[in-house]
Amino acid sequence: MTSSLQVPTALDPVDDDGADLVPGWLRRLAAIGWRVLAALALGLVVVGLAVTLSIVTAAVLVALIIAATFVPAVRRLRARGWGRTKAALAVTGVALFVVVVTLSLLALAFAPFLGQFVATVKGGVGDVETWLADLGLPPVATEVIDRAVGAIEAYLGALVSQLVGPIANFVTVLILGGFLTFFLLQDGDRGWNKLISSLDAWRAEALTKRGEVALERVGGYLRGTAVMASTDAITDFIYLTLLGVPLAAPLAILVFLGGFIPYIGGFITTSIMLLVTINTAGPTAALILISLIVITNLFQGNILAPLVYGRTVDVHPALVLMALPAGAALFGIIGLFAALPIVAFILAITPAIVDALDREPGARTANGMVPTWLDRLGQWSWRGLVVLGILGVVVQVAVAIPTVIVPIVLATVFAATLAPLAGRLRTRGMSHGRAALATTGLSALIVVGIVVLTVVSMLGSVNDMVDTSILGAIRAGIGESAVEVARSVGNGLLQNVAAIVANAALLGVVFLLATLLTFYFLRDGHRWWGTLLDRLSGSRREHVAVAGPRAAGILEGYMAGTAAISVFGAVTQWLIMVLLGLPLALPIAVLSFFGGFIPYIGSAVTTLLGFLVAIAVGSTADVVIMFAYTIVFNIVQGNFVAPLVYGRAVSLHPAIVLMAIPAGGAIAGILGMFLVVPFLGVLAATWRTILHLFDPDEPSADGATLGAPPPGAPTTATALPMEAPAPG
Q1: Interaxial angle between packed helices 372-400 and 402-427, expressed in degrees from 0 to 180 and rounded to the nearest 10
Q2: All structural domains of the chain with their residue ranges
Q3: H helices then E strands: how many in the chain?
Q4: Which helix (H) or strand (E) holds 459?
Q5: How many Cα atoms within 13 Å fall on the side-chain side of residue 555?
Q6: Cα angle, residue 100 at apex, residues 98 and 103 outer, rounded to 5°
């Protein structure tokens, strides 16, 4: 049995043989079921990747939330004649100022009283338990109340652990999120237009309209929630102060944060306020407080909320209550804050996605075993799972046998970088073998010299550098977070140096293998490349012949440009510290050289170490000069030099570079941070060629399509050249 919307597949047979053995409803259920399962499986894989790359995911969520909140301000500034960069920079500065001020208030008003706050809440819990025991409630009611109180204590403990957790990771997320916010406000519309450029006009228009609606609703919800949470925090602070309850400021901060967590946040923060009030001011004050809170909530719900929110987010409470624990389980506090905006955005844009997956509106039909959009989603999903599975196997193999994969990767990068030098030697009469030997030997001597310099300068001064940096962070008086960041960076340096010393023999083997492979790639690579091209035919050969040199050029340009940036940063760092008479100039300069190969982040960290050294042991003039150098160097490099080098070499947007660096670190450590940007650059330049290699249809000389069905052959109305996986 066939229909106008059904794709003939191995799982959806179109003939009637054996149709009487399977009821029609079961065939339809199975046809829908495997497609739904494939889509859900792909979604779970994507969520798993997001959890694995939690720092990148958290930074993206922070950036999206802030950008959605402040994008109307950018549009108003652009309407007044401001440029993209100027408007985005101004709004990002204001947004980050608001975020930093809020976090500073949290640190100043909440953190110092954390121990007293927890003790007071526990005291309130004890008072409630004593009061309930005196009332003589039945055991069942007492057990229920005890569980509720235990849940509040667990929430409070989780909140405390999240707030005093790894500060370095939080600061990293905040910094990355700030940069990504700027790029989203500056080029978000351009990126969206580029993303949908390959779609049909009607699909692109539908997605854009719904996307704008979703963005407006989410932004309106976030702005409205900020107003409502601020109102709750201010009124509760006034009530607590008038009732003589201590810790009013920490409680108000907690109420503000809880206001961003629908339903659950308000219930828990109100319960905590009541427990503190009972313990410090008595049951009568708690009764007055709950009465005032109820009156305030009635006013907000009936008068203020409709004015603030308008028509922003319409999400059923049941869906919210399911999304909140899921967000908390996956991404902690950030997941709690982002759960409702994400769900609201998905609900707003889903109709457009379904329409885009379906046929053109005029060509749709109402009958069929499986809707076209679900069929398309299922077909893409299981194929996507296969591709992701292959990539996952490749990554696991690379991680499992690094002594094989790492030399190959390094040799490929080195060979592409050194190929122009070997080519110049061949033009002067050298053979391929001699040119490859001379180029490889010279580069190996340079690398060995750098390694020796690094070992000599670092071994005896790593501890001093770490201790001095931490001392500088303490003397700067800029908060415990800066001290934790300095300590985290220092511990990371100590661990890396210790790992290098412990694995010196293994690293030597890897370097030797990479050197030998580089020689063979330079000597015989042209023959291997010719053999590969000979095995291809038609347009495939033409595409690959163009893509190969392009990929090599990307690696060459990126490595050469990054090396120039690294040398410049190391020399200037060493020179200014020597001129100022500061210690540890050479080891910090060496770190600056290696840090330069990690775009944006590496240079920022190493220049910060030099600044902290100046604070620890330098004079006031030294601190001022190093501060100016740190700011100017990172601004010039981040906004002019690095975008120029990376834009021309790898053609990647800075936002992609920023997200790729921590992702590469999570997957492959330091090596991943070094190589992820050129890898993405090569992929961005060659992905169309890679897809073309697997394209089954190749145009012939007369314009017909090879492999296409002849005219008059039976086709399905879906026009989707896809097949379902055969059973088994």
Answers
A1: 90
A2: 59-360, 404-693
A3: 24, 0
A4: helix 432-459
A5: 23
A6: 110
3-state secondary structure of 333: helix
Provide the token pair at 214: 């979703």
Residue from 153, 182, 183, 170 nearest 103 by CA: 170
* Residue 724 identity (one-letter amino acid): A
Is residue 189 within 8 A of residue 341, CB to CB? The reply is: no
Contact of 397 with 405, CB cutoff 8 Å: yes
* Nearest by Cα to 173 from 662, 597, 631, 655: 662
**314 by DSSP, 3-state: which?**
coil
Cα distances from 177 to residues 62, 162, 199, 399, 543, in angstroms, run 6, 18, 29, 29, 38
Can you tell me the distance from the alpha carbon of 681 to that of 570, in angstroms, rounded to the nearest whole number? 25
d(CA 67, CA 61): 10
What is the C-alpha separation between 728 and 714, in angstroms, rounded? 27
Name residue 705's beta-bridge partners: 699
Q: 314-318, 475-479, 633-637: lowest mean pLDDT where?
A: 475-479
CA-closest candidate to residue 623, choices 466, 485, 475, 467: 475
**Distance set, CA 125 to CA 147, 247, 502 (Å):** 12, 16, 52
Distances (CA, A) of 7 to 42, 524, 648, 719, 722: 21, 49, 45, 8, 8
Q: Amino acid identity of 227?
A: V
pLDDT above 60: residue 560? yes
Find the range with the poorest average confidence among 447-456, 477-486, 536-545, 705-714.
Answer: 705-714
Q: b/e per residue, 498-514, with b = 16+ CB within 10 A?
A: eebeeeeeebeebbebb
Per-residue pLDDT band for 377 (boundaries 50, 70, 90) equals very high
Band (148; pLDDT cuts 50, 70, 90): low
Side-chain half-sphere CA neighbours of 292 within 13 A: 20
For 210-241, give the DSSP string: HHHHHHHHHHHHHHHHHHHHHHHHHHHHHHHH
Give yes or no for residue 344 having a pLDDT over 70.
Answer: yes
Q: Are 588 and 577 in contact (CB under 8 A)?
A: yes
Distance of CA 275 to the CA centre of its chain: 39
Over residues 554-582, mean pLDDT: 87
